[in-house]
Amino acid sequence: MQSRFRTRYGPLVAALFGALPAVVVAEPSPIVVTATRIAQNADQTLSSVTVITREDIERSQAASVAELLQGNAGINVASQGGSGKLTALYLRGTNPGHVTVLVDGIRMGSVTAGTVAWEFLPLEQIERIEISRGPNSALYGSEAIGGVIQIFTRRGEGPFRWGASATGGRYNTREVAADFSGSKDNNWVSARVARASTDGFDARQPTFEFGSLLDEPDDDGYKNSSASLRLGHRFSAGSELEFHGLHASGNTEFDSSFPYANEDDFVQQSLGMTLRTSLTEDSDLTVTLGRSLDERKSFRAGEPASTSRFDTERRVFSIQDDLQLSDSDSVSFGFDYHDDRVDGTTAYNETARDTRAIFAQYQKQTDQYSLLARLRPLDDEQFGRHTTGNIAGGYQLTRQLGLTASYGTAYKAPTFNDLYFPDFMGFPTSNPNLEPEQSDTIELGLTGKHALLDWDLRAYRTRIDNLIVLDSSYVPANLSTAQIDAIEASLSGSWLGWDSKLAATWLDGKDENTGNTLPRRARRSLRIDTDRQFGKSGLGASLIAQSTRFDDVANTKQVAGYGIVNLRASQQLSRKLKLQGRIDNVLDKDYQIVDTYNTAGRSLFLTLRYESGA
Questions:
Q1: How far apart are CA 72 and CA 76, in angstroms?
Q2: Under a CB-based contact definition with an 8 Å cutoff, are residues 275 and 287 in contact?
């Protein structure tokens, strides 16, 4: 695969990066919140972080969150059949349920399945995405074995303005969006709505499933209506109160054998309120209250009696105090509570579970070195007490070169499906005796900030004990131990006006009990993005390439590696009007990410954007 990759894409890689010896301007370090739960420059956090801004989103012209994240350092995304279809995200080689996902600080995800419906999150409503890699249970609790991804909705700033956009393209894809935002005095507001739909394509090739032939040669469509709202007020004393909400609902079609469901109606929702205030000159308090919904009604088209409903809710509350002890020392203390609830047509043996935790974090930052330590004792209603922690250090070898080292533990509580799903036809499908999965990770990092470029190199080993897998009777059990060894590299810079970024991952994940490779993780991944502005015109390209992977736990099905190229362009037609266009999969590559599931061919999309205050 490597020789074919070099032959086919080597010249393109060289062209994308242009003349390396040319003078380069490195970007300043962005501000991140997720890595430490307080605002810091990314290069001060000691964590491997990526920030994707609204400018990045619009420049990439990505059609979905999954497309935007695919190929970033440490990330594998497996989508089953196009827009709106089941999508799993593997962060640092861990399972899809080993990542904590937040929207404006509110924990998201299905309580029953234990994963987030990435395919339904509307990209049009998103202002920025922060990816914090590595064990983060000491700050965020269960699930954060691979890391944390936080999504921020769009916030109103500056003069009041409104905008609109319309997109159309292959597979009868259509999207319209409108927004109003701005701020005045001590108030701000941002309100946005969007509607997306596509006829799609046949999601799956003919195959055998559950002992029968699955063959539904039809287009599998998708519809998503979304809205977001953020409004806030800053009081005279400096305190801020903000409301934030995100809602998405619609329908997706997929292929399945009779009599199983082949359509879903869905709802994804996050609602919250955040209060920020200063107790003293050196003490900042943040209080967050909210809830998230993951609702899904599954049915077979034309078979009304087949409907099943899974509604899950997460209620969250957190309070955090950040205290600046000196110019170089700070501590954070907090309390987190979340209550998970299940409702629907399936009679689970248990339908609620709550978790309480306190946490403490210490940070020291000097010109020469950095230290971090955190601890989180947690009390789970079912599994009792569990403590996780992190310790990390950084040393500035030179003005341009930094060294980091860290160790952290994390855990993942079993899902409601793992624990409580009722028997099927008299056979057990769940295991109430499961124990939480536990992990420890050791990591070394080397970072550089030079006149030519910024770069980040990380090597880590993660070990997961009590890994939940299906036993010989297809019942979940704590049977396995997994070990993941990996190297991640990322770099960014601007060559001759071309803003370019590269992310590469080498990953080896094994089930130590069987020796098998963990499924649906590519051993090698590469992503290159490059863009340049020529006056009112813009050009850009992306290369995404991944090696072979196994599609099943037994390693009997192998999916071939692939490489695709996407091109994009933009033209500022007037001060307020912009035309954008992109061609995805320019070489019309026929490939799969998940065995038997189809992917899109060469596709052209056009977008017209209007901004009143531009």
A1: 8
A2: yes
Domain boundaries, the chain: 2-611
Q: In whole angstroms, give the CA distance from residue 344 to residue 324.
A: 47
- How far apart CA 331 and CA 373 sit, in angstroms, is 10
Rounded CA gap, 239 and 286, in Å? Answer: 10
Q: Which residues, including other chains, have CB under 8 Å from residue 312's CB and lie 6 or more apart?
A: 110, 111, 112, 293, 294, 295, 340, 341, 342, 343, 416
Q: Per DSSP, what are the bridge partners of residue 330?
A: 324, 363
Element (H or E) spanning 76, and its range? strand 75-79
Taking a C-beta distance cutoff of 8 angstroms, is the pair 320, 306 a contact? no
Residue in the structure block whose two tokens are 């060559």? 495
**Burial environment of residue 399 by CB neighbours within 10 A (0 to 12, 13 to 18, 19 or more):** exposed
d(CA 419, CA 413): 10
Q: What is the DSSP string of 351-387?
A: -EEEEEEEEEEEEEE-SSEEEEEEEEEEEETTTEEEE
Identity of residue 499: D
- E-state strands within 399-452: 401-412, 437-449
- Model confidence band, residue 9 (pLDDT cutoffs 50, 70, 90): very low
The vertex-514 CA angle with 436 and 205, nearest 5°, equals: 90
Which whole-number Å values give the CA distances from 151 to 74, 124, 157, in the listed order?
Answer: 18, 12, 18
Residue 489's Cβ-count burial label (10 Å; 0-12, 13-18, 19+) is middle
Instruction: Tell me the fold of 2-611.
Output: Maltoporin; Chain A (2.40.170)
Closest C-alpha to 525, from 510, 500, 504, 507: 504
Q: Residues 339-358: pLDDT tens digits?
A: 999 999 999 999 999 999 99
Measured distance CA(350)–CA(341) in Å, rounded: 9
| Measured distance CA(137)–CA(131) in Å, rounded | 15
pLDDT digit string, tens, across residues 385-418: 999 999 999 999 999 999 999 999 999 999 999 9
CA atoms within 13 A on the CB side of 312: 28
Q: Are strands 147-153 and 173-184 parallel, antiparallel or unpaired?
A: unpaired
- The helix or strand, by DSSP H or E, that contains position 15, with its residue range, turns out to be helix 2-17
User: Distances from the Cα of 173 to the Cαs of 176, 195, 224, 323, 455, in angstroms?
Assistant: 11, 11, 12, 50, 37
Spatial contact of 147 and 136, defined as CB atoms under 8 Å apart: yes
Q: How far from 114 is each of 143, 226, 480, CA to CA, in Å?
A: 9, 23, 19
CA-closest candidate to residue 216, choices 300, 306, 308, 296? 300
Type of residue numbered 219 = D
- Name beta bridge partners: 90: 76
When pLDDT is averaged across residues 527-547 and rounded to a whole number, the result is 97
Taking a C-beta distance cutoff of 8 angstroms, is the pair 177, 190 a contact? no
